[in-house]
Inverse folding.
């Protein structure tokens, strides 16, 4: 699971290693990546929102 | 999903067309008469139809742009009245987005996705035929609105309510119907592409072996399915407001005109990615071919494209900074826009690193791809500037924005399409496109496009609003330069038509592998690719992917 | 070292260029408010960041294109991945942007803080003119484009402020915080003056807030920035900033004029008087849709000349002008025109372009209708 999160985070950042990609595609299920992706995107929304609220403060 | 899933039902279909004797007769029957084109379910023929349709729309939309540029050549009203001017800008935008750029990418996908994944055809061939033929009908209807009483759509391609509802010409209902049809066409096309990519890959080709063109299209197709229904929803609300007395966007009835903009841009921002991700794919295929070197950072490219798809839903209100959003919303959308722009923008570095220490030649497709990298990046830079909300108050709704999105869309998306056409014409026709005319086309287009769009940055900064038929005197020089560039660019496209016609009719014969550095699956097929290919899946043992 | 020098020289000359560019009207104006100067600063910083990144990136690109041509015998290398490099070149722009976000946030907060304003002006967008209401001062007026039609059609020489001139500018005092409340009576407009760095949409049914504090007296010109229909290009914004004293004098004069203009509701008006006054009102308000010759542009804007339904039914005619037609472009004018102007323009419409009804509508009738 942690590996999936790491992969999704590096996707958000936009950089990934060939080796890890190979492993993701050979061992991972697309479903988990999509779910984790959406969850992390929501998390990002919450974090950015919190920053915005604080900045607007 | 199982990567080695053997192709099932669709293959049977293609066998029944090409394999069995009865179907063979049917095929010969198809070959004669115009009905063949009307009824074809062949991915190559449908791809060709899409591309021809797109080119026609590109030329029609281009003529409208030239009407606009002619009027703006000098201050004062010379050629057209404001009513007609607004119809021209609106129709130009609608036609270029929904009629030229999107169908061109779908056409390229039709042709090349099956060839690049070793599939015999698209997964849903009849649906494919249907989704194409919706388009000519939709756009005939859309163009016909110009002849209706009160004229055609005149409220900009973003059709903000209530200008597009309460205050719109009577033809707006037809505009909505046309857009619905184009939207259905896109959704069906997207479903077909997804089904093809996920189910019909040749045995042995895993997702991770696919070319970036196929990857970017897979992701684009998901975006399309996600946002086209939002567009359909918002235009249906318009329809109800106009014809059935509802007040979704009518403040006098308790509605909210700003709601329209939220819905529109929730569709609209992913839509701009729909128009650029396949372009990324094309450039990522062409640059390695002519640099004779593998794409740098394939894995990053795939991951970043996937995440862009999700994150592109979080930035829509950067188009609405001046609409009066609360401060927190303003900050939120400024931050997300900045965050997402970076991983997107730095993909440019991957292409440049691919060039670094390559062995580079400059055939026409490469020229267009290289111009794409430079000029798209300039559009990305102005995008970064627009992301700074306080500064956007000055840029918003000026020619600066017009410059921005034309840089990303014309020398961006459109150049990538031209690059793709030059790149794959040998595969489609069996002949190389004429290099000499191609070069002329390229250089005139590059000069024209920059003369056309670069001065718009200055005009916008100096204070010229967009969508105006007449302007104050201090903007005159910029506009004159733009208009000259516009005509240069516009007329250069006749060379493009010429190259294509010439290439279809003859030219230097192309071998199966038309470009020395090319390595993808389509280049294992003869040129021109026969009508039916990969009827038996290719043997990919030992094939070197990307 | 020599490269550095060349680079520095280049930068210097480009900086000089950018100054020249601004003077020649190629760049964003610095403007005359603290906010506009902040915005200009942000604009230039992000611009230079883009230029520097561009020079580096395109430099490497063109170097590669030049150096690694196959015609020069270049052999392709085989590397195709380097995660550290990728992380590095992603992180740097990210950090730069985070750094940009800090001043941008500060400026934005400043722009949003309209509290403690000393003067409130309600700005209402109409197709296609602005309407200003000095709140608490009882002064309201329309601000119409003042460029003659002949200049637009090219039969007369265009003036210096072509399309950026109005009959009555918005007059504001310098050095005081002015709050602008924006709304619209029809479609969305956007009130924009580049020198003040204020651009805010005027949305029907909503009131948006913006503010400005102008440093120097002068005339500042802008335009409607949101497509609002046919004459979107022809609804400029002109702000005239003056010293407090001059502003007070102006305010007093305007009040007197307004009182004079609204007077006469009670007296009996003659047909000729009303037609004469009505023609002016029609020309500045109604003609943009219904045309100077009353022919309109059907089906969107109906003709008034020879309009039998209108001539037959006086009450309906009055109702349309006073209360508007909901669900159409015809606005209600009871809030923006005084009873005398309303009576005058209705009388004019019933007696112009061959509409010879001979009807006279008295201001008192309209007054009775508006507040009974
Ligand atoms: C670096 C990435 C980008 C950023 C940060 C960015 C940012 C923006 C912003 C903030 C606006 C709104 C400007 C305004 O109206 O005031 C805008 C407008 C626009 N952008 Fe981008 N953009 C980027 C890339 C792209 C790409 C890749 C495309 C399409 C291929 C695109 C197409 C457009 C279009 C069509 C509009 C204007 C729509 C309209 O108002 O008619 N942009 N962009
Ligand atoms: Cu956007
Ligand atoms: Cu307006």
């Amino acid at each position: 699971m942690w590996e999936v999160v790491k992969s999704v985070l590096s996707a958000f950042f936009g950089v990934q290693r060939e080796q890890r990609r190979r492993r993701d595609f050979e061992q991972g299920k697309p479903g988990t990546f999509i779910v984790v992706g959406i969850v992390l995107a929501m998390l990002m929304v919450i974090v950015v929102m919190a920053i915005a609220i604080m900045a607007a403060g | 999903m199982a990567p080695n899933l053997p192709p099932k039902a669709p293959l049977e279909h293609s066998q029944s067309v090409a394999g069995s004797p009865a179907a063979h007769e049917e095929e010969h029957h198809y070959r004669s008469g115009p009905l063949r084109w009307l009824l074809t379910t062949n991915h190559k023929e449908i791809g060709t139809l899409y591309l021809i349709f797109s080119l026609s729309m590109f030329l029609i939309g281009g003529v409208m742009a030239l009407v606009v540029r002619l009027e703006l050549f000098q201050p004062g009203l010379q050629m057209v009245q404001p009513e007609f001017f607004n119809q021209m800008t609106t129709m130009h935008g609608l036609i270029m987005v929904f009629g030229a750029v999107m169908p061109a990418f779908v056409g390229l996908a039709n042709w090349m996705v099956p060839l690049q994944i070793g599939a015999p055809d698209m997964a849903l061939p009849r649906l494919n035929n249907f989704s194409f033929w919706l388009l000519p009908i939709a756009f005939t209807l859309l163009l016909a609105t110009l002849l209706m009483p009160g004229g055609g759509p005149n409220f900009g391609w973003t059709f903000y309510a209530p200008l597009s509802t309460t205050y719109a010409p009577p033809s707006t209902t037809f505009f909505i119907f046309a857009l619905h049809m184009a939207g259905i066409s896109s959704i069906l096309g997207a479903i077909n592409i997804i089904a093809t990519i996920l189910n019909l890959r040749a045995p042995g080709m895993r997702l991770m072996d696919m070319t970036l063109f196929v990857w970017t299209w897979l992701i684009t197709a998901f975006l399309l399915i996600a946002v086209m229904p939002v567009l359909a929803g918002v235009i249906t609300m318009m329809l109800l407001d106009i014809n059935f007395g509802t007040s979704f966007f009518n403040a006098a009835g308790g509605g909210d005109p700003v709601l329209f903009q939220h819905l529109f841009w929730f569709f609209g921002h992913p839509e701009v990615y729909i128009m650029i991700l396949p372009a990324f794919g094309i450039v990522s295929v062409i640059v390695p071919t002519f640099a004779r070197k593998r794409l740098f950072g394939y894995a990053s490219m795939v991951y970043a494209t996937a995440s862009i798809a999700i994150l592109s839903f979080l930035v829509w209100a950067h188009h609405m900074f001046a609409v009066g959003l609360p401060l927190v919303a303003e900050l939120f959308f400024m931050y997300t826009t900045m965050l997402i722009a970076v991983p997107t923008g730095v993909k440019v570095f991957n292409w440049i690193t691919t060039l670094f220490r390559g062995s580079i030649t400059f055939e026409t497709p490469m020229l267009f791809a290289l111009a794409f990298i430079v000029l798209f990046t300039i559009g990305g830079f102005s995008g970064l500037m627009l992301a700074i909300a306080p500064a956007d108050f000055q840029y918003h709704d000026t020619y600066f924005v017009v410059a921005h999105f034309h840089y990303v869309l014309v020398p961006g998306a459109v150049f990538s399409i031209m690059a793709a056409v030059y790149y794959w014409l040998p595969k489609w026709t069996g002949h190389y496109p004429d290099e000499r005319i191609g070069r002329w086309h390229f250089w005139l287009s590059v000069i024209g496009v920059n003369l056309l769009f670069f001065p718009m940055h200055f005009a916008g900064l100096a204070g010229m609003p967009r969508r105006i038929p007449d302007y104050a005197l201090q903007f005159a020089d910029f506009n004159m330069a733009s208009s000259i560039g516009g005509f240069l660019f516009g007329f250069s496209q006749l060379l493009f038509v010429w190259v294509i016609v010439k290439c279809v009719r003859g030219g230097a014969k192309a071998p199966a592998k038309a470009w020395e550095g090319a390595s993808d699956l389509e280049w294992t097929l003869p040129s021109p690719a026969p009508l039916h290919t990969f009827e038996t899946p290719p043997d990919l043992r030992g094939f070197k992917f990307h | 070292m020599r490269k550095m020098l060349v680079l520095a020289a280049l930068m210097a000359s480009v900086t000089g260029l950018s100054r020249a560019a601004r003077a020649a009207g190629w760049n964003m104006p610095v403007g005359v408010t603290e906010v506009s100067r902040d915005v200009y600063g942000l604009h230039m910083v992000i611009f230079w960041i883009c230029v520097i990144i561009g020079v580096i990136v395109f430099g490497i690109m063109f170097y590669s294109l030049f150096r690694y041509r196959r015609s020069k015998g270049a052999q392709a290398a085989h590397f195709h991945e380097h995660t550290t490099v990728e992380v590095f070149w992603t992180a740097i722009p990210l950090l730069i942007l985070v750094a940009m976000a800090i001043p941008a946030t500060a400026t934005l907060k400043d722009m949003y803080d309209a509290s403690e304003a000393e003067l409130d002006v309600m700005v209402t967008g109409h197709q296609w003119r602005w309407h200003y209401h000095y709140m608490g001062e009882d002064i309201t007026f329309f601000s119409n484009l003042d460029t003659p039609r002949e200049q637009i059609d090219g039969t007369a020489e265009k003036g210096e402020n072509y399309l950026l001139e109005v009959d009555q500018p918005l007059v504001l005092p310098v050095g005081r915080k002015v709050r602008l409340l924006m709304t619209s009576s029809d479609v969305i407009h956007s009130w924009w003056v580049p020198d003040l760095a204020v651009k805010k949409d005027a949305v029907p049914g909503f009131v948006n807030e913006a503010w400005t504090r102008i440093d120097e007296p002068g005339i500042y010109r802008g335009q409607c920035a949101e497509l609002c229909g046919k004459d979107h290009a022809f609804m400029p914004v002109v702000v005239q900033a003056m010293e407090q004293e001059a502003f007070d004098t102006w305010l007093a004069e305007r009040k007197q004029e307004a009182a004079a203009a609204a007077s006469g509701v009670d007296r009996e008006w003659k047909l000729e008087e009303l037609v004469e006054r009505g023609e002016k009102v029609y020309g500045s308000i109604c003609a943009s849709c219904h045309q100077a010759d009353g022919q309109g542009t059907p089906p969107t804007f109906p003709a008034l000349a020879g309009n039998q339904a209108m001539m037959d039914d006086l009450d309906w005619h009055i109702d349309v002008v006073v209360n508007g037609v909901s669900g159409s472009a015809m606005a209600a004018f009871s809030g923006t025109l005084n009873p005398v102007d309303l009576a005058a323009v209705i009388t004019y419409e019933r007696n112009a372009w061959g509409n010879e009804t001979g009807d006279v509508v008295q201001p008192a009738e309209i007054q009775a209708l508006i507040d009974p």
Notes: Residues B 269, 272, 315, 318-319 surround copper (II) ion (ligand 2) (CB under 6 Å). Confidence is low (pLDDT under 50) at residues 1-29 of chain B.
